[in-house]
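Treating backbone geometry as a discrete language has practical consequences that deserve illustration. No coordinates are needed to read the tokens, only the vocabulary itself. For completeness, the protein is quoted in full, as a sequence line and a line of structure tokens:
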Amino acid sequence: MFTMALEYTKEVMKNFLEPQNMGEIENADGTGEVGSPACGDIMRLQIKVKDNKIEDIKFKTFGCAAAIASTSMITQMVKGKSLEYAETLKMSEVAEELKGLPQIKMHCSTMGIQTLRRAIKDYKIKAGLIEKPENWEPKASEKESEEGHEHPEH
């Protein structure tokens, strides 16, 4: 068995070693959690919303460098922005801001976006803006966490 060293951009390393907006928000307006102990990445993201904009955003991620860097970048990209902007953020835009991610790690930015969208949905449910789906939880089930991306070995 051999291991392959991944080459990360300076922007990825900066966001991994000095992540922005890490932590928790007391009395958050919305919380999203995505991940699976089986794949090794677990993300939790919280938002404070004011006037339909993300006033504050914090995250905690247990995972690899790409998972932490992606979530850090996502928080920087949406802080102060409208919920509509945040809901339409794409994985490719996050990777572009990070100046690239190894293809094998692109699922990390997908998980971050899923976590952000769950936090926004949680906020909208709590605020009465959308109806609560049956069996809704801010934390994604393992099946939901697995949908839409693969989990290659870290």
